[in-house]
Amino acid sequence: MKIGLIGGGNIGKFLLQSINTHKLLEDSKIIGIYTRNPKSAQQLAAEYDTAVFENIESLLQSDVDLVVEAATVEVVKQNASSILSSGKDLVLSSVGALSDLNFIQSLEKICKVNGKKIHLPSGAIGGLDVLKAAKSNGELESVSIITRKPPQALPGAPLDKEQVLFEGSAREAIELFPKNINVSIILSLAGLGPEKTRVKIISDPSIKKNSHCIEAKGSFGDLSIKVENDPMPNNPKTSYLAALSVLSSLKNKDAVIQVG
Ligand SMILES: NC(=O)C1=CN([C@@H]2O[C@H](COP(=O)(O)OP(=O)(O)OC[C@H]3O[C@@H](n4cnc5c(N)ncnc54)[C@H](OP(=O)(O)O)[C@@H]3O)[C@@H](O)[C@H]2O)C=CC1
Ligand SMILES: O=C([O-])CC(=O)C(=O)O
């Protein structure tokens, strides 16, 4: 599989290392990278044996089979349609871009017309399998997530005391914290949607890990799950698990035996 990568930050570099250097994905290679800063694209290309796409247009015209986005919510909003229309599958890190039902429906249409797929990794959380099963008979009643991060990972957080920075719906949360709460949107997509998914974001100077506590109720019973994530070394906003989940999506996307 020929992969094109957008974004050369934490997740992008992790994928370059895992796929191009350590060859963890059989018969696959990241053949080119597009990122905002051309200098850093050149450096990454030299270090990880890949090419540079000067712009999105050249990525679209290339022969990559699949594009992995590891950039921003905005990049997905601007480019997802043209990537799928150009005949490439898409794997998203910035799943927060899919908080708008109309946008999802328009992408779905493009996928159907072009025979393409969008893969949404579970990111920095777990429990999506439970929510999908629980809502299959329409009897999932409530879903919430409490995200707790160190203040260095959150915009506008005080360094000296714990503070609730946000409480509301997943739709509002991703508008205000697009780099921090993509998890609430993947949770919404598996469960009750972005209006009905309750979110609390807490800045906590006493912790080093990014934790996500998910609770759900329905006719199945109760779910309570806590993930305590080590952050990526260079970006405390991003949990290591988020990067691993993108690699896992790539590994499993064509598996003949699907788990979960
Ligand atoms: N689903 C989930 O659970 C999680 C999702 N995420 C999301 O995944 C995405 C990637 O995360 P991470 O790797 O940590 O982020 P980083 O900030 O480390 O890297 C982002 C990369 O995207 C590039 N970029 C920014 N804007 C553009 C643009 N307009 N066009 C092209 N490239 C651009 C940046 O370039 P430059 O270096 O020039 O700024 C940088 O290389 C983020 O949106 C993040 O919020 C993160 C964690 C969990
Ligand atoms: O990495 C995390 O713990 C969560 C995160 O940043 C996001 O969902 O955007």
Automatic annotation (TrEMBL):
Residues 160-247 form the Aspartate dehydrogenase domain. Residues 7-121 form the Aspartate/homoserine dehydrogenase NAD-binding domain. The active site is at residue 212. InterPro entries: Asp/hSer_DH_NAD-bd, Asp_DH, Asp_DH_arc, Asp_DH_prok, L-Asp_DH, NAD(P)-bd_dom_sf. It holds the Pfam family NAD_binding_3. Pathway: Cofactor biosynthesis; NAD(+) biosynthesis; iminoaspartate from L-aspartate (dehydrogenase route): step 1/1. It comes from the Bacteria. GO terms for molecular function: aspartate dehydrogenase [NAD(P)+] activity. NAD(+) binds at residues 124, 182. The keyword Cell cycle does not apply. Belongs to the L-aspartate dehydrogenase family. Specifically catalyzes the NAD or NADP-dependent dehydrogenation of L-aspartate to iminoaspartate. This is L-aspartate dehydrogenase. It comes from Neobacillus driksii.
